[in-house]
Amino acid sequence: MMQFFVQNWHNLLWAAIILAVAVVISLLVHYVVFWLLKRLARRKGAYLDQSLARHAQGPTRWIFPLLAILIVLPGLTLPPKLMSALEHITGIGLIAAIAWLFILASVITSDILANRYRVDVADNLLARRIQTQFHMLHRVVVIVVTIVAVAIALMTFPAINHIGMSLLASAGLAGLIVGLAMKGTLSNLIAGIQIAFTQPFRLEDAVVIEGQWGWIEEIGTMYVVVRIWDLRRLVLPLSYFLDHPFENWTRTSAELLGHCFIYVDYTVPVEEIRQELRRVVESTPLWAGKVCVLQISDFFQTTAQLRALMDARNSSDAWDLRCYVREKLIAYIKEHYPQSLPRYRAELDTPNAVASEDGPNGATNRFGSAPQSQASARKQSGGPQ
Questions:
Q1: Buried b or exposed e, range 340-369, using 16+ CB within 10 angstroms
Q2: Over pLDDT 70: what percentage of the chain?
Q3: Which H helix or E strand runs over 263?
Q4: Are residues 224 and 192 in contact, defined by beta-carbon separation less than 8 angstroms?
Q5: pLDDT computed for residue 126 by the predictor
Q6: Where in the chain is the domain with CATH 2.30.30.60?
Q7: What percent of the chain has pLDDT over 90?
Q8: Arithmetic mean of pLDDT, 282-292
Q9: Residue 363 pLDDT greater than 90, yes or no
């Protein structure tokens, strides 16, 4: 080995100098390119430049030197074994770089769609549908590109290539074993693809799952995260949504009908309460302005049930509107018609006095004698007349 370096030190030194200069020049070019890209990204609406500057700067610090080495490597005078090793290493790096470019293209497309179809606006049904589809497709692209890149890189090693060829004969059995072992994983991947295209739910959809109300916060490769109304997180596998029913409150539209029940006495003036409901909903921006109905929806032994029905633009507004209407209608009834609040009625019957046959007042005492007058009672007792 020492003799090899002594005999080829001149060529090795020049090769090292040329490679070092190429790497330094590539890093300078990288700095200039991204300095210009960041300046262009400051412009309003330059989504492509902003995404490139954010996602590509780090990985390209390795890709630019790799490209420089690939350019100067054929012109170097190196021993065959060393040249073969360098070509092999740069070839693996090139495979990784190409795979990264595919993933980068998917990431940039995702950023452009996120800026074009925003979910932080009132009417975001189309935006949520497109972002959900591409969100799932991006994850599939990352998994597929990574597997293919690793497989191609491993095939460049002759020993591993021979091992792979020897295992090819038992690929059917191996595939069956892997399929059985990864049954849950494969079912979730397939469920993710189905959800991406059929879309029973999308990002930020309002749903009711397992008795919990919340929003779809994240759709992963294997699971879905639901943000519960009290900020807890419910994590469910993707396959759950193919096997269990759930409620989606924003499937076709974010608008909802909200209702609240108020229990009152039968004497309540329904028409006045109906007019008050109209005034209440018109006084708040929570109301969507289409539905305002008050009806006696049921009655019980002591109370009548009023149902107030109104519409809202989304589930959060519907909840707040229901609470607001309850508070205002109860306050109105307490102030103007307190007698119409729920109350219990009872009728007390007192038995009639038993008529006496010989008493002057038509009544007898418990001993059967007529009651004495106050004057006669005083005379007998010697009291004052």
A1: beeeeeeeeeeeeeeebeeeeeeebeeeee
A2: 74
A3: strand 256-264
A4: no
A5: 67
A6: 131-252
A7: 22
A8: 93
A9: no
DSSP 284-335: -TTEEEEEEEEEEEEE-SS-EEEEEEEEESSHHHHHHHHHHHHHHHHHHHHH
Query: Six-digit token pair at 146?
Result: 């990574």
| Listed residue (286, 281, 280, 290) closest to 320, CA to CA | 286
Q: 249 with 206: CB under 8 angstroms?
A: yes
| Cβ 297 vs Cβ 307: under 8 Å | yes
Mean pLDDT, the chain, whole residue set: 76
CATH class of domain segment(s) 256-340: alpha beta
> In the chain, which segments carry CATH 3.30.70.100?
256-340
Residue 372 is given by DSSP the state P
**What DSSP string describes 150-169?**
HHHHHHTSHHHHHHHHHHHT
Q: In this structure, are residues 83 and 147 in contact, taking their beta carbons and an 8 Å threshold?
A: no
Please tell me the chain's helix, strand, coil percentages from 3-state DSSP, rounded to the nearest 5: 60, 15, 25
- By C-alpha distance, which of 18, 14, 60, 19 is closest to 37? 60
Tell me: pLDDT of 182 over 60: no
Written as one letter, the residue type at 240 is Y
Q: Look up residue 136 and give its amino acid.
A: M
At residue 168, the pLDDT reads 43
Instruction: Give the neighbor-by-neighbor strand order of the sheet with 304-312.
Output: 256-264, 304-312, 287-299
Cβ neighbours of residue 174 closer than 8 Å, sequence gap 6 or more? 167
Other beta carbons within 10 angstroms of residue 31's beta carbon come to 13
pLDDT tens-place string over residues 30-67: 888 888 877 777 766 556 667 777 777 777 778 888 88
> pLDDT tier at 265 (50, 70, 90 boundaries)?
very high
Is pLDDT above 70 for 193? yes
CA proximity to 96, closest of 160, 153, 26? 153
Distance CA 364, CA 355 (A): 7
Look at domain 131-252 and name its CATH class: mainly beta
Residue pair 223/188 in contact (Cβ under 8 Å)? The answer is yes
Instruction: Give me the pLDDT at residue 232, please.
Output: 92
Residue pair 73/87 in contact by the 8 Å Cβ criterion: yes
Q: pTM of the prediction?
A: 0.49
What is the structure's pLDDT at 185?
A: 64
Give me Rg for the CA atoms of the chain.
42
